[in-house]
What we know:
alpha/beta; Four Helix Bundle (Hemerythrin (Met), subunit A); Rossmann fold; five-stranded parallel sheet; 15 strands; elongated
Amino acid sequence: MAETVASSRLHKLEQLRAAYRSELAQRLEAMETCWLDVRGGHDAAARVEELQRLAHSLAGSAGTFGMAALGQAARVLELAISGLGGVATARDAQQRASIDADIAALRGHARQEPTAPAAAASPAARGGTAGEAENRLLFVIEDDAALAKAIATQLGAFGWNVQRLANATAAREALQGTRPAALIVDMTLPEGLHAGPELISGIQRSTDSQLPHVIVSSHWDWNSRLAAARSGAEAYFVKPVDFAALTDRLDTLTRRSPPQPYRVLIVEDTTVLAEHYAQVLADAGMEARVVVDATRLLEVLADFSPELVLMDLYMPACTGIEAARVVRQDPKFTGLPIVFLSTESGGAQQLAAMQTGADDFLEKPISDADLVAAVSVRAVRFRALAALIRQNSLTGLLNHITFKLQLEGEVSRVQRSGAMLTLAMLDIDLFKHVNDNHGHPVGDRVIHGLAQLLRKRLRRCDVIGRCGGEEFGVLMPDTPLAVAVRVMDAVREQFGHVHFASAKHGPFRCTFSAGLAAFSDGVDEGSLLRTADEAPYVAKRSGRNRVCAAAGPQ
């Protein structure tokens, strides 16, 4: 399967290379026509500008498609044209002859066979396989049937498939044929006081790979913890187990929450080059979208919500600098990273680009491998910085301001597209009672636990935010109200089964009330939010621990 996918990707890139070569004759003819017009004085100033743009485009794209010499020759021509200084015609016969020769040289380079492209990083080279990321099987090695059942119930609410093994012998047999994502092992088994870590240590010695595992125990003492550490345990939980904390550690241990693909918007007027960039980034596990016409940029920004924009510096409708200024006029895009792509290496032009609020400057031509590396490094940094600004520190969910901006964007999208959108607002029942009776740190664990459950049980495309102390918001795109009610009701039931640990009063449970409202024609984000925000109070007045759908906008 992997070979088939790789072959398909290679075939796509080869098709783009062939398409680029097939367009070369038309490109060169357009450049020659421009030059003839310049020499003849026909609208010469505009034709000089067009010729320079065409030369710039060829200089930036040819190397990407294995025609470095053609790109270098186009760059020489671009510099020669810029040397005209904006006059309508070349100053003297020698200058005209030099440009004649530069344009003729392009034909010769265009006939040369392209070189093979350098390989970019493949998805497999960056980490685990998709199958590994989807492994939800946990082995619980526990002789206490009641505790094993509680673990299965609690972790099942967070999407884990739990299988209980009552002793070391059963565990060894099960591990011969199946590899779980992780193990939860009791310190004491029928085989002995420290039989759990001893079992794992023996298994680890007999295999080349390590089994991610955590130890649960009734003992806090040094020797028990040391035995767990020697087995390679990543965590040690004292009974009664804090299941929210256990789920957190399991997610970290098994990497069950792989990062979403980086979203990159490519603004490039040369279609085949833009598609090549998009294919290379897609092969590296990113999500890339192309805009060839800069006048559509704001529309695509609103729909796609990119995390990084790669923008050509020279385009027919406007320059990249001008496009960046238009983007920066909208407060929603003030912090959107913009990286310019251009053959321009002059400091003055790069400085002008940076003054628009651009974040970086990459020189064309750029190899596939360098493109992936450059985008990856910048996207990682930009996402990390954005997370600090956008996320609530306790839950990792969007903060209130960012959630409202997302709501505004989604409403704008559905107003244009006619798609469905449902907004849910959740409020933890009697949360003041939780803080007063169990303490604020325990209350924080309850909030964190609900945040975890929402992330596990909702789709990646659903937008989740913490909108207040114990209040959460969920945007559910392309979801009818009736379906959203069923989904949220299932989450409500699962949350009611989760146990939270309290040193004062022992384990306890919480519930939440939720209200939902669907987008309809004539509704803006403010009225949709008010309608959904009122519905949880209707649910609370009806007895709490329930989901209510609002009748319509208020």
